[in-house]
Amino acid sequence: MKKKWYDYLWIGELLYWALGLCNILFAWLGMLFFTIPLLVALIGGNKAYCNRYCGRGQLLGLLGKKLSRNAPPPKFLRSRWFRYGFLAFFMVMFGLMLRGTYMVFAGAPLRQAVTLLWVFKLPWHWAKVDIVAPWMAQFAFGFYGVMMTSTVLGLLTMVLFRPRSWCVYCPMGTMTQGICMLKQKKEDGGCGGESRENCGAAEDSGQ
Ligand code: SF4
């Protein structure tokens, strides 16, 4: 099948990491990966972003062709309590990152480190960040850590299970799925089979 432009969005994902390594301030671009899926779900009421435009999902799919064990993900990963629990945990950690940004805005010193998996502090002293306000730099460090943490989890689950197993519990996927199910429920007056099909996680569609 002929490739479309959006089949190459995985390059954007790689570019994001490369730019962030050159200068952490490029981490701000990651906000696009947060806002676009939500806008697509809110306006379109579907999972078009996940199914078509997500560079991360594409990259995991591509890498998984060579590196994945291709084993089905464990049942608990797919369960509602785990997916919504992980989303809640992720949002709490995101809130703490925003709090750290606010503290720097209020006068606390800038911490030049990227936190991986919420625990490991990677020193990042080569970053040239004095061209912006310290709080903007702090947000960039925090956000790059959030993106890196989710990528590491995505790669781990890609190797251990199916290529796009991350999509089963990806917080963005859970949020967009919730939004589009709510929207379709409203339109249909109930969430029938078609709604679930349109709203399902990428992993559900066998990718
Ligand atoms: S579930 Fe997450 S990683 Fe997967 S396609 Fe959707 S936004 Fe991308």
In short:
The protein is mostly helical and about 210 residues long. The chain has helices at about 10-20, 30-45, 50-55, 55-65, 75-80, 80-105, 135-160, 165-170, 170-190, 195-200; strands at about 115, 120-125. Helix 4 packs parallel to helix 7 and helix 9 (about 170-190) packs antiparallel against helix 10.
Estimate nothing, just give the exact number of structural domains. 1
Separation of the first and last Cα atoms: 16 Å
Summarize the main sheet. 2 strands, antiparallel
- The H/E string reads HHHHHHEEHHHH
Summing up helix and strand content along with how strands pair, one would put the structural category as mainly alpha
* Estimated radius of gyration: 18 Å
Number of helices: 10
Report the portion of residues in β strands. under 5%
If you average the pLDDT, what whole number results? 90
Which ligands does the model contain, each kind named once?
Answer: iron/sulfur cluster
User: How many E strands?
Assistant: 2
What is the general shape?
Answer: globular
Helix content: 55-70%
Low-confidence stretches: 190-197
Strand order, sheet with most strands: 1-2
Tell me which oligomeric state these chains represent: single chain
Walk me through this protein's architecture:
There is one protein chain. The chain is mainly α. It has one domain. Helices cover 64% and strands 4% of the residues. It contains ten helices and two strands, in the order ααααααββαααα. It has helices spanning 10-22, 31-44, 48-53, 55-67, 75-78, 80-105, 134-160, 166-169, 171-188, 193-199; strands spanning 113-116, 120-123. It has a two-stranded antiparallel sheet. A hairpin with a 3-residue loop joins β1 and β2 (120-123). The protein is globular. The relative contact order is 0.18. The structure holds iron/sulfur cluster (SF4). Iron/sulfur cluster (SF4) is lined by residues 37, 50, 54, 56-57, 166-167, 170, 172-173, 201-202.
